[in-house]
Amino acid sequence: MMSIKEGFLVELERETNNTKRILDRLKDEDLNFKPHEKSMSLGELAGHVVELHNWVSGALTRNDFNLATDYTPFRPSTVAELKSALEEGYKKNEQTLDQFPEEEWFTKWTMRVDNYVIGEMPKLGALRFVITNHLIHHRGQLVVYLRLLDIPVPGLYGPSADEKK
Predict the structure, then answer these.
(1) Closest Cα to residue 49, out of 21, 84, 86, 17?
(2) Mean pLDDT over residues 86-93, rounded?
(3) CB 147 within 8 A of CB 134
(4) Which strand (E) or helix (H) includes residue 109?
(5) For residues 24 and 136, what is the distance between their CA atoms, to the nearest angstrom?
(6) Is the pLDDT of residue 3 over 90?
(7) Are 134 and 38 in contact, with CB atoms under 8 Å apart?
(8) Could you tell me what percent of the chain has a pLDDT over 90?
(9) Residue 104 contacts residue 3 (beta carbons within 8 Å)
(10) pLDDT attached to residue 82
(11) Which residues of 30-54 are buried (b: 16+ CB within 10 A; e: fewer)?
């Protein structure tokens, strides 16, 4: 039977590769694109997706993650920075999950801003809800940015419309 850790290692590899497929389509000149004045730029959004991947090693290893003190937004200025952060983070994330004790998945994890608690849940839920689902949501937004820029969209969970013959 597969352990929780083994299941998350498979997911970590697949989701990291999906994000890499998107980053491989980007050029530095795309990073300032904003579809709307209230939107993040493509670079900010891609940076947020990459940093969410890296919360596996940066946030999940804590019992209390305070956005006011434990978080600095990743603001890349080049696609190379995005790719490097994703690759370096993947290695740390893989090591973190590989060494994560099975019983640790059920310990309470808190996300807060100073004294305001955003949420409390077992670390198992934090990885699924706060990290993975959150990054998939923002990666979906990133795919829309690609479409608006007429950049061919890579297939993530099957072929995209751009990959169908």
Answers:
(1) 86
(2) 97
(3) no
(4) strand 108-113
(5) 17
(6) no
(7) no
(8) 96
(9) no
(10) 98
(11) bbebebeeeebbbbbbbbbbbbbbb
Contact 59, 131 (CB under 8 A): yes
* Residue 164, pLDDT score: 83
CA 109 remoteness from chain centre: 18
Q: How many CB atoms lie within 10 A of CB 5?
A: 16
The encoded tokens of residue 135 equal 């990054």
Is the separation of the CB atoms in 35 and 20 below 8 Å? no
> What value, to the nearest 5°, has the Cα angle with vertex 139 and ends 99 and 56?
15
Amino acid making up residue 127: L
Cα distance between residue 162 and residue 148, in whole Å = 13
Identify the residue whose tokens are 């790719």: 83
Q: What is the pLDDT of residues 4-63, one digit of tens each?
A: 999 999 999 999 999 999 999 999 999 999 999 999 999 999 999 999 999 999 999 999
Return d(Cα 1, Cα 4) in angstroms, integer: 10
- Roughly what angle, to the nearest 10 degrees, separates helices 4-23 and 134-148? 20
Rounded to a whole number of angstroms, the distance between the first and last alpha carbons of the chain is 39
Q: Hunting for tokens 């850790």 — which residue is that?
A: 5
Location of structure tokens 């670079």: 43
Counting Cβ atoms within 10 Å, is residue 100 exposed (0-12), middle (13-18) or buried (19+)? buried
